[in-house]
Amino acid sequence: MDSKHQCVKLNDGHFMPVLGFGTYAPPEVPRSKAAEFTKLAIEAGFRHIDSAHLYNNEEQVGLAIRSKIADGSVKREDIFYTSKPGEELSPTDENAKVIFDIVDLCTTWEAMEKCKEAGLAKSIGVSNFNRRQLEMILNKPGLKYKPVCNQVECHPYLNQSKLLDFCKSKDIVLVAYSALGSQRPKQWVDQNSPVLLEDPVLCALAKKHKRTPALIALRYQLQRGVVVLAKSYNEQRIRENVQVFEFQLTPEDMKAIDSLDRNLRYFNSVGLASHPNYPFADEY
């Protein structure tokens, strides 16, 4: 089934496809691959494309989208493109410590609202926000637009159930990155952390449903009402991931996956823990 037919309505009236293609790749992967695999993802049925200034591939992703529009595969209005703006990437001092940029989150949100009003973005949301930070925006005097989504790390080992419930109560969509457990880049992820897709419960459910552990992990999120990003630079797996709409997990399956939660954050960004806006010190 084409994923463009599976969407969630956002609190601003726009629609977001519930399955997205994550374009991040480790530095050793040539940037040209971002264009190649974004094209493949669109051909496979993905209509939600996720990128960021941090990924250093937005030009390649944009060219891929443009080429698929030019060849008639899609129209621009078919594509939901997500980005995260930024400037210098992780500047450091002479001791290699990250230099923090202290910016008021509410002031930043006001700038985002201006972007929406100027037509530079159709919808605006946040990423890696905890409940306290979301409430800061929601309770801001003069708020014009609520965040439509909060993109966070979310997978069976970190199921974010409390944050999900809070977001649902505020009509904010939770979007899951690292939904398959992360590609485990050495500079970000503890190499001793468990490999999600090798989990016995996921493997058993994959065998039961004649699917892959990755599809089980993706389907789990969709049935919880989470928009899920599937990141892969492998053609077979990209095409395989859109099969997530072809089967259902039972309530018993869902409970079994719920039980895997161990509050394990692959991307804990401990090097940023001293930043006043570090989000991961709170419970959720």
UniProtKB/TrEMBL annotation:
Molecular function GO terms recorded: 15-hydroxyprostaglandin-D dehydrogenase (NADP+) activity; aldose reductase (NADPH) activity; all-trans-retinol dehydrogenase (NAD+) activity; androsterone dehydrogenase [NAD(P)+] activity; Delta4-3-oxosteroid 5beta-reductase activity; geranylgeranyl reductase activity; ketoreductase activity; ketosteroid monooxygenase activity
UniProt xrefs under CDD domains: AKR_AKR1C1-35
Active site feature: 55 (proton donor)
A single cellular component GO annotation: nucleus
GO annotation (BP), single: regulation of retinoic acid receptor signaling pathway
InterPro entries: AKR, AKR1C, Aldo/ket_reductase_CS, NAD(P)_OxRdtase_dom_sf, NADP_OxRdtase_dom
Site positions for Lowers pKa of active site Tyr: 84
UniProt KW keywords: NADP, Oxidoreductase
Domain NADP-dependent oxidoreductase: 19-85, 102-261
Pfam family name, one: Aldo_ket_red
Top-level lineage group: Eukaryota
Family: Belongs to the aldo/keto reductase family.
PANTHER family (alphabetical): ALDO/KETO REDUCTASE
Protein name from the UniProt record: Aldo-keto reductase family 1 member C3
Species in which this protein is naturally found: Cebus imitator
Organism placement in taxonomy: Eukaryota, Metazoa, Chordata, Craniata, Vertebrata
Gene name, Swiss-Prot/TrEMBL: AKR1C3
